[in-house]
Amino acid sequence: MTTSHSAPLRITEVCLRDGSHAVAHQFTTQQVRDVVNALDDAGMHYIEVSHGDGLGGSTLQYGRSRVDEMELIETAVAECKRSKIAVLLIPGIGTVQELKTAHSLGAKLVRVATHVTEADVSAQHIQVARELGMEALGFLMMAHSAPVEVLVEQAKLMESYGAQAVYVTDSAGAMLPEDVRERVRALRNAVSCEIGFHAHNNLSLAVANTLTAIEEGATRIDSSVRCLGAGSGNTQTEALLAVLQRRGVDLGIDLFKMMDLAEHVVAPIMHRVPEINKGSLAMGFAGVYSSFLLHAERAGKRFGIDPRSILIELGRRKAVGGQEDMIVDVAAELAKQK
């Protein structure tokens, strides 16, 4: 299997960040210690640790963390012999000060995430990360929701700020393989930095879409062991590694160890098995942010509204990550219309 970029293919394991959504941000220090220890032993390249909504996300709006994320980051760093710890930062939720604190605790990489049309708010955070000596990557969320030329324009902005890679981020799990191919190819032809890809499995296409991204030149790839992530989860790490090995790509990550830790370390801490159910399928169909699912289910129960109707309406209104407060408003409006 070949790609159109000379950089090595690298995996960022996101089960301890994206997976935070799936456990209502209730990871304990011991759980993080156990997962990171096993991932490091298996040879994982990067392990992302933060609140599901990134640094500073532990709020009433996004959900309170059981344990302060800085404590979890420090715990994760202490367990790593080979892997590097990464964090996510969404400007407006996380701050430069929180980024500096995470760096002081040993985080080596940050993905600065913005809505696909708002790359300009990432400039300060990317520049500070580079000054700190961190790897600084751009993360364009809800990449399906903007025309390709807008995606390219925003990626160029992130690269100009110093981003060493820019991600096509399928936050809603709404992309089809042809959508991925078009977007990754367009970025590959427009920027000189690396291209990344982050998938969600709401339409059962996460592995297929990730393979398509790799074929088009993406070299920074996100995945989640046991599919632990928001919605129907992300590209399943152990499945992706198996498929890549079938294609002759060995990333230096022990497949059997990944299988074992999925079964014996991650599975026991999962609140529920990520699956393509009516809620997550509705998210992929409507094209809404994957972390909206639990919020929509709670609001639906409160107001007696089918969560799918809430998600579809949020998609119609083009709601984006960070607008979780809109979910209750939409549910209340739909209840009044009954």
From TrEMBL:
Pfam family, one: HMGL-like
Record-listed substrate binding positions: 17-18, 171, 198, 289
Alphabetic keyword roster: Aromatic hydrocarbons catabolism, Lyase, Manganese, Metal-binding
Catalytic reaction(s) noted: (S)-4-hydroxy-2-oxohexanoate = propanal + pyruvate; (S)-4-hydroxy-2-oxopentanoate = acetaldehyde + pyruvate
EC number: 4.1.3.39
Gene3D superfamilies the record matches: 1.10.8.60, Aldolase class I (3.20.20.70)
One of the GO biological process terms: L-leucine biosynthetic process
Family per record: Belongs to the 4-hydroxy-2-oxovalerate aldolase family.
Record NCBIfam families: 4OH_2_O_val_ald, PRK08195.1
Name of the featured protein: 4-hydroxy-2-oxovalerate aldolase
